[in-house]
């Protein structure tokens, strides 16, 4: 252990420690609130309440032309035309004030120009939901989905629960975001269940796609620019647009709290901007409550899986274009398995916030609401809680568990020892029961063997089972056209790195689908092991190590501070039940490893790519000379280069460490731990090392990495031989 | 100090009484000459001022000392007036009100539709109570009081009658149980000087005084604190109901605080004047009560609220009489201590005499009504009218539920013909496209000179037109106002059929009026749903307009089925509704006051410094807490200041 201080001290600057204290103080309160808000469901979730909505009595044509009498969101709702909504925004006190009082006088811009600009912004933004388009689109979607999916399963119990809780207050749908398909699915499901169709906040990228922008607009999407920094007019227009949708309560509003599609299949840390804007009518007393419905959409196989792999490794993302979309239509030849959709317990914001709105001298509505620290704390909680609810209500595919087993095998077993179907089934079975004890609902409808084979079949482009039962990973990147190094977003990786990297990152995509279950137990397991190795094993020593890792990985996983004690205790209990920790010990303050060393090993191994990536990021930043700064991009590039060297020299064997997403999280994490300093110069963000602190962190991360470094090291070339090559890879 | 007015006053029946007063002891009959003016010199205010006219009203109060002989002991209003069920149809008894002796078939149906009541199964309240808590008697005080030649009573019913107001909780208790604490003695003082004497004695012997005016509080302000161990004297002000003088030149009148609204207006009308102060309770509520609760009248747009009408006030406190020694129409003399008296809710002293502004009776009085397609356009129209400051004396906008309720209270079909599809209904709903389940109505009352009224009418209807409003006739407007007094009787009918009902109010800035109405209705709906309440009525009206905002009045009633403690359930829901009101930008009260039911929010409305200030005043005026009604301030000084 580093002599420079305990891991928990290193983990936090004083500021963070204070934050943690605050969160800890408030935590019991939140627990009360949550108990109140979310009565524990009647029983464990079961697959039998999920119904395939593609499997319906009426034919698609009858279905899309059914009489449209949706359940209303609020009683007072009045249907407004697009023009009326625009008019309401323009005539709102806030816009009047922004333009008449603020912008035109400050910037000496003529008012007329501003009003024209506002009108243009609103036209660019506005949705134009029209039922004929929705119906027509629904018809086409039905056909496509029938072709590529074996079912869209919706938890009908959750639909009943949803129905019961809408009617009085504005509703916000917050689905998880893994694929473009999310946009369409939600509306499709609402249409099926006669729930008012959501109006969806979408990124501006779609607008430029010919036809698609219009189509999405007509289906109810409105478009927000990705970044509008200090554009006060745009900000005012955007927030007023969202708020008029909330207060009018005609449609549910849908947005992705993660901000963008998660390329990694892990939940992204929630973004607070849009959520804060949407909650403002509640905070300012314009509506009495808002119902937030976190929604999980679980895909057996993600449409964009290959694309994401390249993207994470730094191969540029093609600009969204319609022709690109058509090219992507070759996805239609593939099978993508099932989709599971679960509307989780609706959250009453008023109850969640403990009726935070204090009767105070209220500011007039045209002035922007200043979010108080207390409100801000709750919004952060809510956002994290929403994401956790999404995670908790996932349906985990057997393939994800298989991916964990296969990855573990590839990393730890000698190259001549291939994984066979029998071993795989056995290991998946034991992992399944572990996952279930962590609260997972696993999509296993038949007996495990059949279900597993079906699951593997869906992913036959990545995993093949030979006739003699050997399980192998396909090299999907084999025939990739040469990539122009200039276009690489990160370090220009060698071809052979990509050949192993792309399939490994793709495989990790499915491993990641399970990580929300395993992350806390994994961190605890590793902390226990290290603590014992250091001769302690006392619970508080373990907790200190756990805190360090948790803080380190807080940009990677949803590990809100308020839950750190709860998560710790729960993980220990679960691990003891599973035999990873010994539960026979009498001393309740001491922890020790149990007999299930295999699961312990798998859990710890899950942290490998993250610790390896973070460790390299630390080293890279340490090399920045004192007084010099680097941009994020530079830091990413040199870290990737460093990692590639390690991979080539067999000092490292997990290619997911190369993920730009992971390395970005690493830099952000180091920055919030105070190990690197973030500076803004001329609008550019630059980083410089905080040497002492960074050295401490590097040391501790290195110590942890030592423990999870694979038992059996293989060079990249050796690893490649575990793969079978594929003649044509698709991108 | 006071003039020798006894010579031209009807001699009050003064006697000491331990037992109840007999029927013969009621007021002496009037001599019929209620119009006599006598020129006198007044010694009041140090004898400096010359009074032009002193008027004494010789009519006795409409309310007798033994109130239970005229008024219900366990419900609202006159004993002979109530909603009753005859052969399955609701009708209204007596002929004091316009709907008296009429059958109400639509209303009957409405109660079934809205509340799912079964009119064949009434619940009977307990019979008149005969067993009362033993009075706590301070013998020294009693001995002195007996020497003072005052009208007093320790009769149980007299004491019980003054132990409550008309809060839901109060009436519910009267129907099913008994208060833990009621006054120990009732005293009817006859003059300011008698009040001074009584307060002196109470202070000397540490006896609690609770002033009692009309007893129409809806905030539990009349309730005796249960934990009070001292003797509690209820000071029934009803006999101090004289107009001491009336000044035609300056348009002011000096009036004793015990006078009730209808007596005051009757007397002034004989002389061609009005105060124009007309709260909905004005049949029964008293002048002193108005001042003590910062009351508001329906016609405040023309005449002003009580604080605008009040020129001078005398309040007897344990440490002396608080009053200003000037009657200037407006003064710049430090903080205005009239405002210490206004809204003090009996916590600082007894209000005995008030000088009020009066106005000549209006030449023209005209009703009107406007229908709007929905509540939102109605509110927008009200805002515009307020902006242009052309409000008539009263303008009220009722929501759709209340609109339908008003229609249901008709004895036979008329303008909107509740059942029949008459031409007018056809015209309104089909030709004009109004939706019967969305439309709302504003009722108007114009008062003033003929030409003023005409101008105002023109402006109001023009503005209404811009907001999609359509004039709907005088009759509908008039009905709206005359029904006001009848509505208070409905709660007693509800009690008989498992329904509890209450009203509450707030004032709110204009831009939040609409969202407040929505939010509070939504919150109440959610609270009902959470409690499994299926049949309820939650309705509101915008009942006053100001430059900066409006006043919203809510009625909430529900069928409680077989809940064991419906009153508590009601209180929980009202508390949630009040939290919603405050969070939606509304105030704690517009005119009902704080009493005991809204105490918990007092601090957050007036700030901790405000509470300190109130306590400092209380401490100086009433150091031994003689006026221990416990209204306004909860007395708990929390650590987090």
From TrEMBL, chain A:
Gene Ontology MF terms in the entry: glycerol-3-phosphate O-acyltransferase activity; glycerone-phosphate O-acyltransferase activity
Keywords: Acyltransferase, Membrane, Transferase
Location in the cell: Endomembrane system
Annotated ranges, domain Phospholipid/glycerol acyltransferase: 171-300
SUPFAM superfamilies with a match to the protein in the record: Glycerol-3-phosphate (1)-acyltransferase
Any one GO cellular component localisation term in the record: endomembrane system
Primary location group: membrane
GO terms (BP aspect): ether lipid biosynthetic process; fatty acid metabolic process; phospholipid biosynthetic process; triglyceride biosynthetic process
A Pfam family of this chain: GPAT_C
Membrane-crossing segments per the record: none
Domain of life: Eukaryota
Record's bilayer topology term: Peripheral membrane protein
SMART domains associated with the record: PlsC
Listed Polar residues bias regions: 1-11
Region Disordered, residue ranges: 1-27
Family under the similarity heading: Belongs to the GPAT/DAPAT family.
Name of protein: Phospholipid/glycerol acyltransferase domain-containing protein
Provenance organism: Cloeon dipterum
TrEMBL record, chain B:
Names of the cofactor(s): FAD
GO-annotated cellular components: peroxisome
Site (Important for enzyme activity) residue list: 396
Binding-site list for FAD: 211-217, 293-296, 345-351
Binding site for substrate: 491
Catalytic activity entry: a long chain fatty alcohol + a 1-acylglycerone 3-phosphate = a 1-O-alkylglycerone 3-phosphate + a long-chain fatty acid + H(+)
Annotated GO MF terms: alkylglycerone-phosphate synthase activity; FAD binding
Name of one Pfam family that matches: FAD_binding_4
Location of the FAD-binding PCMH-type domain: 179-361
Signal peptide limits: none
Gene3D superfamilies in the record: 3.30.160.650, 3.30.300.330, 3.30.465.10, 3.30.70.3450, Uridine Diphospho-n-acetylenolpyruvylglucosamine Reductase, domain 2, Vanillyl-alcohol Oxidase, Chain A, domain 4
Residues at the catalytic site: 553
E.C. code: 2.5.1.26
Functional pathway: Lipid metabolism; Glycerolipid metabolism; ether lipid biosynthesis
Superkingdom assignment: Eukaryota
Stored PANTHER family: ALKYLDIHYDROXYACETONEPHOSPHATE SYNTHASE, PEROXISOMAL
Function: Catalyzes the exchange of an acyl for a long-chain alkyl group and the formation of the ether bond in the biosynthesis of ether phospholipids.
Similarity comment text for this entry: Belongs to the FAD-binding oxidoreductase/transferase type 4 family.
Protein name (database record): Alkylglycerone-phosphate synthase
């Amino acid at each position: 252990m580093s002599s420079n201080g305990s891991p928990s001290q290193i983990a936090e600057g004083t500021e963070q420690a204070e934050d943690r204290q605050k969160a800890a103080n408030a935590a019991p309160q939140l627990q009360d609130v949550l108990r109140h808000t979310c009565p524990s469901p009647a029983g464990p979730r079961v697959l039998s309440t999920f119904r395939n909505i593609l499997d319906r009595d009426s034919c698609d044509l009858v279905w899309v032309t059914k009489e449209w009498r949706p359940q209303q969101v609020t009683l007072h709702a009045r249907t407004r035309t697009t023009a009326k909504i625009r008019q309401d925004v323009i005539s709102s006190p806030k816009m009047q004030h922004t333009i008449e009082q603020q912008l035109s006088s400050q910037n000496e811009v003529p008012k007329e120009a501003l009003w024209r600009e506002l009108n243009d912004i609103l036209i660019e933004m506005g949705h134009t939901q029209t039922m004929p388009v929705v119906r027509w689109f629904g018809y086409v979607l039905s056909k496509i989905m029938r072709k590529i999916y074996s079912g869209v399963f919706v938890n009908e119990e959750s639909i009943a629960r949803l129905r019961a809780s809408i009617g009085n207050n504005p509703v916000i749908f917050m689905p998880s975001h893994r694929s473009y398909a999310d946009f369409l699915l939600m509306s499709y499901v609402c249409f099926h269940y006669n729930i008012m169709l959501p109006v969806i906040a979408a990124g501006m990228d779609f607008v430029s796609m010919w036809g698609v922008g219009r189509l999405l607009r007509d289906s109810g999407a409105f478009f927000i620019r990705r970044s509008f920094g200090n554009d006060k007019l745009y900000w005012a227009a955007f927030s007023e647009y969202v708020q008029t949708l909330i207060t009018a309560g005609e449609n549910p509003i849908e947005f992705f709290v993660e901000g963008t599609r998660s390329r990694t299949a892990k939940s992204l840390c929630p973004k607070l901007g849009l959520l804060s804007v949407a909650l403002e009518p509640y905070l300012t007393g314009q509506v009495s409550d808002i119902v937030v419905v976190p929604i999980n959409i679980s895909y057996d196989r993600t449409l964009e899986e290959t694309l994401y792999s390249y993207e994470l490794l730094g191969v540029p993302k093609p600009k969204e274009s319609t022709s690109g979309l058509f090219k992507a239509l070759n996805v239609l030849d593939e099978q993508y398995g099932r989709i599971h959709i679960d509307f989780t317990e609706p959250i009453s914001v008023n109850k969640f916030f403990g009726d935070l709105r204090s009767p105070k001298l209220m500011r007039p509505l045209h002035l922007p609401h200043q979010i108080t620290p207390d409100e801000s704390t709750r919004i952060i909680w809510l956002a994290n809680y929403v994401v956790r609810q999404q995670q908790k209500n996932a349906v985990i595919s057997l393939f994800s568990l298989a991916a964990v087993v296969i990855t573990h095998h590839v990393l730890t077993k000698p190259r001549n020892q291939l994984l066979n179907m029998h071993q795989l089934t056995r290991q998946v079975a034991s992992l399944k029961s572990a996952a279930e004890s962590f609260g997972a609902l696993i999509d296993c409808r038949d007996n495990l063997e059949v279900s597993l084979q079906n699951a593997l079949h869906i992913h036959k482009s990545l995993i093949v089972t030979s006739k003699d039962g050997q399980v192998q990973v396909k090299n999907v990147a084999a025939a990739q056209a040469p990539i122009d190094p200039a276009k690489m977003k990160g370090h220009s990786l060698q071809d052979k790195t990509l050949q192993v990297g792309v399939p490994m990152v793709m495989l990790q995509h499915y491993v990641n689908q399970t990580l929300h279950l395993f992350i806390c137990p994994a961190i605890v397991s590793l902390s226990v092991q290290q603590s014992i190795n250091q001769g302690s094993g006392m619970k508080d020593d373990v907790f200190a190590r756990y805190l360090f890792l948790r803080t380190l990985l807080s940009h990677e996983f949803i590990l809100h501070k308020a839950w750190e004690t709860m998560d710790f205790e729960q993980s220990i209990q679960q691990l003891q039940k599973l035999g990873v920790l010994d539960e026979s010990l009498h001393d309740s303050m001491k922890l020790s490893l149990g007999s299930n060393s295999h699961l312990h090993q798998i859990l710890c191994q899950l942290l490998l790519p993250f610790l390896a990536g973070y460790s390299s990021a630390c080293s890279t930043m340490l090399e920045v000379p004192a007084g010099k700064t680097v941009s994020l991009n530079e830091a990413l590039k040199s870290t990737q280069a460093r990692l590639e060297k390690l991979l080539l020299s067999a000092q490292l064997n997990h290619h997911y460490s190369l993920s730009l997403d992971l390395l970005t999280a690493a830099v952000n994490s180091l920055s919030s731990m105070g190990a690197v300093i973030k500076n803004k110069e001329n609008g550019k963000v630059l980083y410089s090392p905080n040497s002492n602190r960074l050295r401490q962190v590097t040391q501790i991360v290195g110590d942890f990495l030592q423990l999870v470094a694979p038992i059996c090291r293989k060079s990249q070339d050796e690893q490649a031989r575990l793969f079978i090559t594929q003649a044509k890879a698709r991108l | 100090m006071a003039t020798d007015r006894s010579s031209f006053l009807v001699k009050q029946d003064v006697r000491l009484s331990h037992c109840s007063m007999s029927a013969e002891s009621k007021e002496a009959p009037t001599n019929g000459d209620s119009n006599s003016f006598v020129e006198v010199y007044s010694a009041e205010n140090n004898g400096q001022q010359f009074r032009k006219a002193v008027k004494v009203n010789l009519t006795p109060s409409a309310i007798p000392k033994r109130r239970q002989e005229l008024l219900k002991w366990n419900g609202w209003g006159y004993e002979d007036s109530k909603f009753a069920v005859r052969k399955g149809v609701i009708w209204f008894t007596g002929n004091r009100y316009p709907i008296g002796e009429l059958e109400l078939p639509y209303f009957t149906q409405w109660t079934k539709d809205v509340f799912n009541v079964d009119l064949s199964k009434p619940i009977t309240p307990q019979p008149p109570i005969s067993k009362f808590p033993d009075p706590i008697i301070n013998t020294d005080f009693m001995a002195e009081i007996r020497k003072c030649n005052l009208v007093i009573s320790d009769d149980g019913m007299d004491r019980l009658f003054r132990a409550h107001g008309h809060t839901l909780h109060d009436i519910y208790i009267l129907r099913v149980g008994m208060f833990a604490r009621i006054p120990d003695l009732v005293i009817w003082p006859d003059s300011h000087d008698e009040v001074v004497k009584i307060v002196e004695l109470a202070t000397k012997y540490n006896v609690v005084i609770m002033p009692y005016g009309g007893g129409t509080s809806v905030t539990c302000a009349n309730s005796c604190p249960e934990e009070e161990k001292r003797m509690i004297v209820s000071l029934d002000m009803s006999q101090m109901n004289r107009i001491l003088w009336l000044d035609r030149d300056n348009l002011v009148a000096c009036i004793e605080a015990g006078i009730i609204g209808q007596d005051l207006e009757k007397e002034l009308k004989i002389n061609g004047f009005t105060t124009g102060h007309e709260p909905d309770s004005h049949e029964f509520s008293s002048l002193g009560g108005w001042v003590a609760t910062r009351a508001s009248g329906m016609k405040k747009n023309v005449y002003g609220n009580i604080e605008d009408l009040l020129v001078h006030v005398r309040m007897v406190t344990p440490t002396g009489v608080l009053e200003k020694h000037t009657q200037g129409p407006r003064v710049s003399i430090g903080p205005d201590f009239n405002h210490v008296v206004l809204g003090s809710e009996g916590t600082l002293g007894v209000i005995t005499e008030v000088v009020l502004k009066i106005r000549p009776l209006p030449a023209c009085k005209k009703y009107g009504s406007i229908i709007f397609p929905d509540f939102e356009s109605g509110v927008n129209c009200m805002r515009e009218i307020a902006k242009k400051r052309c409000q008539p004396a009263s303008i009220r906008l009722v929501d759709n539920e209340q609109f339908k309720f008003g229609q249901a209270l008709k004895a036979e079909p008329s303008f909107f013909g509740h059942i029949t599809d008459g031409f007018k209904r056809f015209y309104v709903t089909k030709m004009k496209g109004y939706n019967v389940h969305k439309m709302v109505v504003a009722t108007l009352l114009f008062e003033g000179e003929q030409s003023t009224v005409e101008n105002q009418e023109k402006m109001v209807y023009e503005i209404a037109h811009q907001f999609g409003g359509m004039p709907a006739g005088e009759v509908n407007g008039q009905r709206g106002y005359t029904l006001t007094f009848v509505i208070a009787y409905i709660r007693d009918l509800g009690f008989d059929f498992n329904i509890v009902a209450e009203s509450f109010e707030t004032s709110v800035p204009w831009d939040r009026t609409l969202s407040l109405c929505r939010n509070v209705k939504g919150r109440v709906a959610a609270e009902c749903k959470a409690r499994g309440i299926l049949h309820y009525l939650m309705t509101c009206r915008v009942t006053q307009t100001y430059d900066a905002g409006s006043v919203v009045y809510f009625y909430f009633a529900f069928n409680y089925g077989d809940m064991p403690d419906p009153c508590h359930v009601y209180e929980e829901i009202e508390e949630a509704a009040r939290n919603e009101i405050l969070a939606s930008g509304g105030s704690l009260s517009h005119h009902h006051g704080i009493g005991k039911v809204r105490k918990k929010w007092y601090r957050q409305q007036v700030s901790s410094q405000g509470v300190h200030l109130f306590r400092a005043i209380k401490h100086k005026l009433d150091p031994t807490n003689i006026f221990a009604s416990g209204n306004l301030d909860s007395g708990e000084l929390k650590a987090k200041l």
